[in-house]
Write a structure and sequence with these properties.
944 residues; six-stranded mixed sheet; alpha/beta; 30 helices
Length: 944
């Protein structure tokens, strides 16, 4: 019975499943209409037409749609945006469920609005405009790589070779403009830029004369890196004119987008004139991994075309686009989707007319079909085919190609995963991403002019204009920069360095000096740098300090002079005086040293009191012994010997500390008494920060900003000074008479000032570190070359010779110009005191551990003896501990010592008696010695 019920259940399930399958199959139409819009007679169109046809055959023969035939109706847009739009509308009138194409980005922009309205998915294998976004055009799906990634690859290529700017020539339509806009963004991310853009009218309207005018304008620009983003017709015309103008020679760099690689792949060989005009050009090609299936299709392609037409990457993407749509349709039908259309209510008010707009209907299953298209995940001729969240193909990558001779050579790859590499992107995807500069590699390139040397990438504009070099018209310290008799004539240390560096450049630099400032006061150097950043001047030459806020807006060369802020103050010569012996140490140093003398005496007394008779006796005697012993170690004259190992350890370390202190004191005191000493109430920048005195600074210097912003000194305390004479007067008057306590300025100025003013000195240390450099606009290539030239001047000694010419020191500056504190401070010796203190602590800890062990050892016996005593246990323990610390440690040891002393004395007595027998009278000295010995013996044991 159970078997019967089981068979019945299986029969019912099989019936339901077969019913569902028949219903699903029955819902599939016999034919599915798909439209294709592209230009038949174009580089991409000729390949796409064959590729799409072969893909349709393969889909139908493979039975992907399970009995449904895929039919693709092709329309020729004939390189016209208008005809392309008309062709797309004609396709949409025939109940088309999807469109393959269009090829043109211009047509795609127009048709995408119609596709959104009719909910018809549009799969383009060639429209690379990055602005065809998924948000604005949700039914547009790009089945090829976007120009967004191609422009990123070009930007990384420019950055790899160290170029800073490019010129962009593009076709002036949606495809060209939006592609160059993406290039601009990609370059900006790497602090690069497009210095000049030139648009060319689309179609055939751009003649040779117009192209020549554009290229002549480009030759007058600074950058020699040219990015060409156009179509093949205009692109080859541009190369032909460029070759005629000599722009394909040494020094130029041409980078063409993937339009050139598609021509090289499909048309081979090109005419010799055409190949001559593109020698050394770099171009990109959409990367498709090598596979058995791809090689088989290439072989099949050669048989189809007879070798007359090559296969480009766009042809492979066109083939895979048909398969994307076929797999999506199969999934669509499996999900119960049906081919049905409904009228568009938005078109009803328009009514009927010759345009037959009423024939265009909304595809009801458009959203479901679109979702299945975006869920595609299979391996096609172009590799893995799947889309990311932005509806872009997964893993974008490009081949980088160099045109050489009659062909081209692949010099590397670019991938959005790891950047530039000589390894294939699919190999890199198996490793962790690594975009470090070390891993960015390409093979060698043959550049235009058949040279292997990387072009510099820029020249000075050939437009007859001179570089405007701003020079500050200084009033003070004219040895650095001073204006000559002519309007653009300058001289000085900074000017000589600049002109010497320019002569070392491998090219001529046309320039003229422009005076900045009214000649009555020094100009603001910060404003001067801002003017360079704003483009008013091409550079600034002078004594310009390289500071942080300036480096944010301009580029500086390598520093040609070291600089930094210092403090200048008046000084007075110090007399030695009666208390000069106290000056070597600071008060704190004296106090700490005295404390340690007493501490060492106390520690040694504690360690020696129980076992050394020389540290025992009445309290007064012991206090005197402590003080005498500690201070006598200063002169190594202590006569008390140490017996314990801990005491000797502490004493050895302390004697080493005393040795260092004595030596330092002697050296410092010698310097004070023999060398002329200078003194100033200002000890450095800290004295100025903590005080309220007025401070001087040079007009136009960055010192004002640093003192107020970085050191938080009130502006009311700052006094602007313009000339060395004002420095002298303000310092001599001092803050009491309306002057300043000190002047803060850069070291080169101060050294020049002190070379003639011997009554002032630098106090303290230089509290900032910087240098002087020449300012150029951001990313200026001239700044890099000038830095190299300055380094060369430094290496060959010319920089020092220029310095000696203008800034030779006088006799006054040969003296010591810096006032340093002549006192020794605790910070120079705290390590020694720390070691000595730790030794004392360790010795005392070990000593008290020994005492406590002995106390616990004797605690039981002492408790039994005092059982009848009326004192409390705590008082007894304290008395016991104190007695252990005060009592002599071991009588036997001192007894042995006394016996040894007595034995030595008896032997001395015997020797003296023998001497008495031999001599008629005894020596008074020996009798005195005997009396001393006889009195010393009982003294050692008087207090036990």
């Amino acid at each position: 019975m159970n078997l019967i019920w089981l068979l019945l259940l299986l029969f019912l399930c099989f019936g339901v499943l077969s019913n569902g399958a028949r219903k699903n199959l029955s819902s599939r139409p016999a034919v599915v209409n798909v439209g294709a819009v592209f230009t038949f007679d174009s580089t991409i169109g000729r390949v796409a037409k064959i590729a799409i046809g072969e893909a349709v055959k393969d889909v139908n023969s493979a039975g992907v749609l399970a009995g449904t035939k895929l039919v693709v109706t092709m329309r020729d847009s004939n390189c016209s945006g208008f005809l392309g739009m008309i062709g797309a509308l004609q396709v949409l009138e025939t109940d088309t469920i999807a469109i393959i194409g269009p090829q043109s980005s211009v047509v795609a922009h127009m048709i995408s609005h119609v596709a959104n309205e009719l909910q018809v998915p549009m799969l383009s294998f060639a429209a690379t405009d990055p602005t065809l976004s998924s948000l604005q055009f949700p039914y547009f799906v790009r089945t090829t790589q976007s120009d967004l990634y191609q422009m990123k690859a070009i930007a990384e290529l420019v950055d790899y070779y160290g170029w800073r700017s490019v010129n962009a020539i593009f076709i002036d339509d949606d495809y060209g403009r939006n592609g160059v806009s993406a290039l601009d963004d990609a370059l900006a991310e790497k602090r690069l830029k497009i210095s000049h853009k030139e648009g060319i009218p689309p179609g055939t309207s751009a003649g040779q004369a117009e192209i020549m005018d554009i290229l002549v304008k480009v030759t007058e620009l600074e950058s020699r890196i040219i990015v060409l983003h156009a179509n093949p017709d205009i692109g080859f015309r541009i190369f032909s004119v460029a070759h005629y103008l000599g722009m394909m020679q040494n020094g130029y760099v041409w980078i063409a987008s993937d339009w050139l690689s598609s021509v090289l792949d499909t048309t081979s060989p090109l005419a010799s004139e055409t190949m001559d005009s593109i020698q050394g050009v770099l171009t990109l090609r959409q990367h498709t991994p090598d596979s058995d299936r791809k090689r088989a299709f290439v072989s099949r392609w050669k048989k189809l075309t007879g070798g007359s037409l090559g296969l480009s990457s766009f042809g492979l993407y066109a083939y895979d686009t048909v398969w994307v749509l076929a797999h999506a349709l199969d999934a669509f039908f499996n999900q119960g989707g049906t081919i049905s259309f409904s009228n568009d209510s938005n078109l009803s008010p328009i009514g009927k007319g010759s345009l037959h707009l009423e024939e265009m209907k909304i595809f009801d299953g458009g959203r479901l079909l679109l979702d299945n298209v975006l869920k595609s995940n299979f391996v096609g001729l172009t590799g893995p085919v799947k889309f990311d969240s932005d509806k872009s193909l997964y893993a974008p990558a490009f081949d980088i190609i160099n045109v050489i001779g009659t062909g081209h050579r692949k010099i590397g790859y670019w991938s959005n995963y790891s950047g530039l590499s000589t390894e294939t992107p699919e190999t890199l995807y198996r490793r962790p991403p690594n975009r470090s500069s070390v891993n960015q590699q390409l093979y060698g390139v043959v550049w235009p002019g058949e040279t292997l040397t990387k072009p510099r990438g820029w020249v000075f504009p050939n437009n007859g204009k001179l570089l405007k070099i701003a020079v500050p018209n200084r009033v003070s310290y004219r040895e650095f920069v001073s204006k000559g008799r002519g309007a653009d004539t300058f001289k000085g240390f900074c000017i000589d360095v600049f002109t010497a560096a320019v002569t070392l450049l491998p090219y001529a630099v046309p320039y003229q000096f422009v005076s900045v400032g009214d000649g009555r006061k020094n100009p603001s150097y910060s404003d001067l740098v801002i003017s360079v950043a704003m483009g008013e001047y091409d550079a600034a030459v002078g004594d310009i300090a390289i500071v942080t806020n300036r480096t944010r807006i301009v580029d500086f060369t390598q520093p040609y002079a070291s600089s930094g802020l210092v403090v200048v103050a008046p000084f007075r010569k110090m007399n030695t005086g009666a208390w000069a012996f106290l000056r070597p140490f600071s008060p704190l140093m004296w106090g700490v040293t005295a404390c340690f003398f007493i501490i060492i005496g106390i520690v040694v007394w504690i360690l020696e009191h129980r076992i050394n008779d020389e540290f025992r006796g009445p309290p007064k005697h012991q206090i005197i012994t402590i003080l005498w012993f500690s201070f006598s170690t200063m002169f190594f004259a202590h006569r008390e010997s140490t017996v314990s190992a801990l005491g000797r350890l502490v004493l050895i370390i302390w004697l080493f500390v005393v040795l260092i202190i004595n030596s330092s004191y002697t050296a410092s005191l010698t310097s004070i008494l023999t060398v002329q000493q200078l003194s100033s109430p200002i000890k450095g920048i800290e004295s100025l920060i903590n005080g309220d005195d007025r401070i001087g600074y040079q007009v136009g210097s960055f010192a004002e900003h640093y003192l107020t912003e970085e050191l938080n000194i009130s502006e009311s305390r700052l006094v602007a000074l313009g000339t060395p004479e004002e420095y002298t007067k303000a310092l001599q008057n001092g803050p009491e008479r309306g002057g300043v306590a000190a002047v803060v300025d850069e070291r080169p100025y101060v050294e020049l000032f002190l070379s003639t003013q011997c009554t002032f000195r630098i106090v303290g240390q230089e509290f900032t570190k910087s240098g002087w450099g020449f300012a150029f606009p951001r990313d200026s290539p001239l700044a890099i070359d000038m830095s190299t030239a300055i380094l060369a001047l430094s290496e060959n000694g010319d920089l020092q010779r220029i310095h000696d010419k203008w800034l030779s020191a006088s006799a006054c500056s040969l003296e010591s110009t810096e006032i340093e504190s002549d006192r020794l401070h605790l910070k120079s010796f705290w390590g020694l005191f720390l070691i000595c203190g730790l030794a004392c602590i360790v010795a005392l800890v070990i000593y008290f551990i020994q005492i406590l062990r002995k106390y616990h050892h004797n605690a039981a016996a002492m408790g039994a003896d005092s059982s009848g005593d009326g004192s409390t246990p705590r008082s007894r323990r304290i008395q016991t501990l104190l007695s252990l610390m005060d009592d002599k440690s071991d009588i036997t040891k001192t007894g042995h010592k006394k016996r040894r002393i007595g034995r030595s004395l008896s032997e001395n007595d015997k020797e003296e008696e023998e001497d008495d027998e031999l001599q008629s009278s005894s020596s008074p000295k020996k009798k005195k010695k005997q009396v001393r010995h006889s009195t010393e013996i009982p003294r050692t044991s008087e207090y036990n």
